């Protein structure tokens, strides 16, 4: 139950950041060009969107950190497994587990270093240039995203140790999509 909530929150955060950044960039571009035509858009010159670029950069950084964790969970990260597939199954299992645990260790270390960095920033008055937010709020994505990714590596490693299966992404499959072929009994 808790895992499903975390999964959904992760997906909602990524989708919201992506949609929000896209909308903000669109509105910023419209506003920028509308200012040049004051007769058609007299209100555009009253809105200042100088902050939009900075906010979108922050949103894409947060989206990337949480998107990496999502990639580990769903198996969409790029992996080079040519040599691993040539190993005999008993050795392959240990090599894959070693790789997953190394990923967990690395992201755990990055999360801890990020947490120490954010904690150090919290005691300062550093702010972002345009939005004037406390800098620690922006950098908080490093420990949060890294710890989530560490958790996902451990989750995948645990499932792999029990079942021998890794998550994999089927580009041809769209969840909850029922097409004409599915109604006739053929796979979509």
TrEMBL record:
Molecular function, one GO term: transmembrane transporter activity
Tripartite ATP-independent periplasmic transporters DctQ component domain location: 22-160
GO cellular component: plasma membrane
Transmembrane segments: 12-31, 51-73, 94-115, 135-154
Family matches, as InterPro entries: DctQ (IPR055348), TRAP_DctQ (IPR007387)
Domain of life of the organism encoding this protein: Bacteria
Topological relation to the membrane, as annotated: Multi-pass membrane protein
Gene Ontology terms: biological process: C4-dicarboxylate transport
Places the protein is found: Cell inner membrane
Function noted in UniProt: Part of the tripartite ATP-independent periplasmic (TRAP) transport system.
Protein name: TRAP transporter small permease protein
Lineage: Bacteria, Pseudomonadati, Pseudomonadota, Alphaproteobacteria, Rhodospirillales
Gene: dctQ
